[in-house]
Amino acid sequence: MTTNARLRALVELADTGSVRRAAERLVVTESSVSSAVGILAAEVGTPLVTRQGRGVRLTPAGERYAEYARRILGLHDEAVLAARTEADPEHGAVRIGAVTTAGEFLIPGMLTSFRAKHPGVVLHLEVAPRGLVWPMLARHEVDLVVAGRPPQDLYAARAQAVRPNDLIVVGNPDERAGFDPARVTWLLREPASGMRATCTALLETLDVAPPQMTLGSNGAVIAAAVAGLGITLVSREAVRRELASGALVELPVPGVPLDRPWHLVSQPRPTSSTRLLIEHVLAAPELGWSGSGS
Prior knowledge:
Blueprint: H1 3-16, H2 19-26, H3 30-44, E1 49-52, E2 55-58, H4 60-87, E3 93-98, H5 100-105, H6 107-117, E4 122-127, H7 130-138, E5 144-147, E6 158-163, E7 166-171, E8 186-188, H8 194-206, E9 212-214, H9 218-227, E10 232-235, H10 240-245, E11 249-250, E12 258-259, E13 262-266, H11 272-283, E14 290-291
Parallel strand pairs: 3-4, 3-5, 8-9
Antiparallel strand pairs: 1-2, 5-13, 6-13, 6-14, 7-10, 7-11, 7-12
Helix pairs in contact: 1-2, 1-3, 1-4, 2-3
């Protein structure tokens, strides 16, 4: 195994907690995974894994080393893409990460129009909650992120474009009669979601503690609101059709709408193919993006 292969073995072991499952993901033998991690441990000079029941877990040293391993692997992949696309960006690749709402409502139009003009560029897309997407950029696992405002501690990032995004509170039309945000059930996204964190902050600002129900996706939250299970904070764009049809109505809540623009964020020095995608987004007025000064 090369050094990169050993690092991948450690990362897969960290993710799965099992030598067998790590080997299945990497399509290698279990002994190859064990040997790779053993060689890394010998190089570092301290154990990286320990037995836990039928599986294994990383030691504190192993967890720390795995953090660097992810970054090393991501940066190496980025370096390969940068070198390959420098001479021919029209035949390169772009790795994109997007939060769920952006993945459902912004990314399809963006990538469809881009592919029509640049069919030779391979596009890789990962859609995940905010709490997972931004670490991908920090570890150089993606070249571009479409999400809300980047975390303040994400220094190695550059906002390339912004797009307006209003967050509103919506519910079934029956919720309008005697509406009280302190008594109605609020529908929340999954724990790692940025929308959930924003909604929780809104409830704290309102100083209310209403009943809450957690659902696993943006689509599930909207469907539950339409069905009358409760109300929710959501991007206006995500419920445009439901508002137009009358299936949902906008409800009056102090401090809402919230201005939470979308951000298109890249690594500090984008690859040539990534730059093509950024330039396309900024040059297409129908996509609604404008340049960012940050």
